[in-house]
Amino acid sequence: MKGATPIKHRFTFVIIETALAIGVLHHHETNNMKLPSLASVYLVFGLAHGAALSEKVLVEAHSQIMGNASAVLGWQLAGSQQSMAPLEMGCKDITSLGHGNWISVGLDSDVIEDVFCTAASAPSNASATALAEIKLSVTDIFITQLLNAFGDNTEASAQWLCKNFNYTAMNDELALDSGRVGRAFCLNRPYGTDWVDPTHEVDIVADPRIYNLASYLAAILYIFSASSPTERWVMCEQYHYMAQAQLKLGINSKIVREELCVDHDIPLMTAHLVQTKMAGSSTNIFEQQLIVATDAAGDEKKMTWLCENIEHRDLGLLGMTPSNSLFCLV
Fold first, then answer.
1. Quick one: how far is CA 281 from the chain centroid?
2. What is the C-alpha separation between 264 and 262, in angstroms, rounded?
3. Which pTM does this prediction carry?
């Protein structure tokens, strides 16, 4: 998308096939894309109980996840630029920065370009806007994963999650929008529990494992934009201009530097390797997020429930690594 004041993409979580079947979708139009309202999605989730999640549903969910992941990457980059030039360049043509590489691993270049345009229109607020947008997009990724990770066991899983969510941990440790998560699973349900809005806003992930995993994923995707080992080295030489800003966005710049500043003779990563790394990192982040969000660490009963109810075979279609041992105690 070109221009200084674009309409921002917002990728919501959706179970599209069931929604179409019962005809409850109400849409918002965004850049000619029609996306369901949050209220409709929550309703669909409740009505989907007993209907198996088809490949079509999971592929659509993965598309939503990748849209939000694209927004996260876009804001991680745009929010850490130190001048208008790269923002304007990315807004005009994002391939001038990413060389089209991000498309090959499933990211949406239009969304990333959109972010750069938004940042370019208000550069003085880019960092603060980036924090808020990253938090919202990461929250929606987590919700979409949860909506689709339990197969057709939607009502039982929503009830279990609603009863076991620790909203303080979601806010303080995971820097997620805890109210948004709560509304997705607990609103207007007989088993709904009240959540208390956090007394303070947390924008940076405090959980060290997720902080480092997310930083590694950001590093991999940034490095993949290089078109040659020489360009990668130039990016390394110039990274100190971005490092401090990225720290403020919740990225461990030391991890980025370690991955970026490698010898010239080390070949560039292939798209397949990057996708494998993305899947592995996404799986580990999701696992740790859910353990923290439900206070499942060290709780054998909770871990057993998660192990037995996660639809492990569907994780691959959600952009994660299929694993029969996820959450399973050995």
1. 11
2. 7
3. 0.84
DSSP 109-145: HHHHHHHHHHHHHSGGGHHHHHHHHHHHHHHHHHHHH
| One-letter amino acid for residue 160 of the chain | W
Q: What is the largest CA-CA distance in the chain?
A: 61
Rounded Cα distance between 9 and 226, Å, is 25
How many whole angstroms separate alpha carbon 133 and alpha carbon 113? Answer: 15
Beta bridge partners of 29: 34
CA–CA distance, 89 with 258 (Å, rounded to integer): 27
Q: Where are the domains of the chain?
A: 16-135
Beta strands at 33-36 and 27-30: parallel, antiparallel or unpaired: antiparallel
C-alpha 185/C-alpha 143 separation (Å) is: 9
Task: Give the E-state strand segments of the chain in sequence order.
Answer: 27-30, 33-36
Helix residue spans in 99-239 (DSSP H)? 109-121, 126-148, 154-164, 167-172, 178-186, 208-223, 229-238
pLDDT for 174 equals: 97
- Helix, strand or coil for residue 174? coil
Tens digits of residue pLDDT in 166-207: 999 999 999 999 999 999 998 777 666 666 677 778 889 999
